[in-house]
């Protein structure tokens, strides 16, 4: 599994001290995909196109661009982004979108 450094920042931002070990264990078995010269412009395009109309913020644009550039499956816990009525334009540009609604438990951590 891969993750964006933006995702790591979002996780760490909301982490409680008692969750640090589980987060370190989770991220330790995953690979971080760097934000590079190809992802930056793609994210900028997304922001230009969708920031006002869909309230896309920099973090989400970077995560979506990472998935799109590398043809990755994007997992999200944002139910509005998965709405069938008005699908989010960033999600239609990734290989696939999987709703993720369960908590992750890492062996040895609660």
- Cα-atom radius of gyration: 15 Å
Mean pLDDT: 78
Classify the secondary structure makeup into a structural class. Answer: alpha/beta
Question: Domains counted in the coordinates: how many?
Answer: 1
CATH class type:
Alpha Beta
Specify the biggest β-sheet.
Answer: 2 strands, parallel
Order of helices and strands: EHHEHHEE
User: Ranges with pLDDT <50 over ≥5 residues?
Assistant: 95-110
Shape: globular
DSSP strand tally: 4
Task: Tell me about this structure.
The chain is an alpha/beta fold and 110 residues long. It has a single domain, classed as Rossmann fold, CATH 3.40.50.1010. The chain contains four helices and four strands; from the N terminus they run βααβααββ. The chain has helices spanning 5-13, 20-28, 39-54, 58-69; strands at residues 2-3, 31-32, 73-76, 96-99. A two-stranded parallel sheet has the order 1-2. A two-stranded parallel ribbon has the order 3-4. Helix 3 crosses helix 4. The longest helix has 16 residues, at 39-54. The relative contact order is 0.16. Mean pLDDT is 78; it is low at 95-110.
How are the SSEs ordered, and which strands pair?
Layout (H helix, E strand, L loop, with lengths): L1 E2 L1 H9 L6 H9 L2 E2 L6 H16 L3 H12 L3 E4 L19 E4 L11
Parallel strand pairs: 1-2, 3-4
Helix pairs in contact: 3-4
